[in-house]
Amino acid sequence: MVVFLCVALLVASIAAWTDARTGHIPNWLTFGALVVGLAAHLLAGVRSGGGWSGALFGVGYAAGGALLCSVVPLFMYWRGAIGGGDLKLFAALGALCLPMVGLEV
Question: For 60-76, what is each residue's pLDDT tens digit?
């Protein structure tokens, strides 16, 4: 889990840096982190000895984290309080950190 948190910290740091400089969070960063989160949790499910059922549980849990962590930012996006890059960043962090830690992020 520490590796996922370190990756999430790196992604959030790069996003903050680019957002402060340009006013945008790049899609390659947010979509890349989302794909890495889903794929890494898929592999972690296989490595844990769960086989394909563990892999499906891991990727499902990561996808649930992405969805759950983007619910509140979606409403903020609709109201114009945040941009689309912020919304995608929250989804990516939810996929990396899973639902409970992602909500704290």
Answer: 989 999 999 999 999 99
Domain that holds residue 69: 2-104
Instruction: Please give the structure tokens belonging to residue 63.
Output: 């996808």
pTM: 0.91
DSSP string, the chain: -HHHHHHHHHHHHHHHHHHHHHS---HHHHHHHHHHHHHHHHHHHIIIIIHHHHHHHHHHHHHHHHHHHTHHHHHHHHTTSS-HHHHHHHHHHHHHHHHHHHHH-
**How many folded domains does the chain comprise?**
1
Q: How many other β-carbons are positioned within 10 Å of the β-carbon of residue 48?
A: 12
Residue among 70, 35, 104 at smallest CA distance from 43? 35
